[in-house]
Design brief:
2 copies of one chain form a homodimer.
Chain A: H1 4-18, H2 27-34, H3 38-50, E1 54-57, E2 63-66, H4 75-83, H5 107-123, H6 126-130
Antiparallel strand pairs in A: 1-2
Helix pairs in contact in A: 1-3, 1-4, 2-3
Chain A binds a DNA duplex through residues 3-5, 26-28, 37-40, 42-43, 45-46, 49, 56-64.
DNA sequence: CTAAATTATCATGACAAGATGATATTTACA
DNA sequence: TGTAAATATCATCTTGTCATGATAATTTAG
């Protein structure tokens, strides 16, 4: 469903939301905590910063933190820089133009399903996920 | 949502379902009708045949046709050889073990959404899509 | 002002998906 | 029996994603 990179982004944001949201966290700290390749994560963090999801500070004692409260950050915002509009993935059959007025054979049935996926990403806040009993992201 | 190859497979099956289901259709005929690369489609057709979705006949006057009625063929069957269990894509955060008893932070919320996607592919029949007003697959 | 720490950026490589082209194999029909 | 038509199979090529490693730029601390 999500690309590897988008998954890294989401896990990173959850990590930052669960930790001290106001303090800075180094890329190497995050990479080690989440078991994500260090150098690759650097680029992902940079893109998240450019997208306005994180703010970065360079130099000694630098690092990353959330640009806004987790309760106001949607999953769609986190994932969009990597996977584009998630779930909104238009036509199941790959037609460039597929709409209510010019539908592909799968349009009517697929529309409601993909709409739910899209809604999930647009309306679920990062903060919502922290309410779960186990917020820690455990890896294999 | 679907890989390019799975999309080819789905469009091919819809084409065969809309056409004479009992007669054979050549790979080149399908490729031209659906604007899919000829040689690449050959392999996709072969895999669909091996998966039991199509039957193939070699030699002169050979070709492909559906192995069973479109009304008894699920979208999941068509797509599975390429994308695996679609929508059933387990954990949004990529955890290998993620279940009701050992959930990731997103589990509860994501479960219902991914379940709907999975259900769509498992319960929608190829034949269902033919009832649409415009069954022809128009490409850009 | 210098050095260390840290992000930013660049260059490259590994790998899979998608695509292309050529060859082998099978079958029908003249 | 031979030839043409069609699928089956094999060998590459291209491209994008994921990943690795090295270097530049920036900032703080002493």
């Amino acid at each position: 469903m999500l690309s590897q990179t988008a998954e890294y982004a989401l896990r990173t944001v959850l990590y930052l939301a669960a930790a001290q949201q106001t303090s800075l966290h180094r890329a190497s700290e995050i990479a080690e905590a989440l078991d994500i390749p260090r150098n690759y994560l650097s680029k992902t963090l940079h893109l998240l910063a450019r997208a306005g999801v994180l703010t970065s500070s360079r130099g000694k004692n630098g690092g990353f933190r959330l640009a806004k409260p987790a309760s106001k950050l949607t999953l769609a915002e986190v994932v969009a820089p990597f996977d584009g509009p998630t779930g909104a993935r238009i036509c199941l059959l790959g037609r460039v133009a597929c709409s209510d007025s010019d539908p592909c054979p799968a349009h009517a049935r697929w529309k409601s399903v993909s709409g739910e996926v899209s809604t999930f990403f647009r309306e679920t806040m990062v903060g919502d996920l922290l309410e779960s009993p186990v917020a820690r992201v455990k890896r294999a």
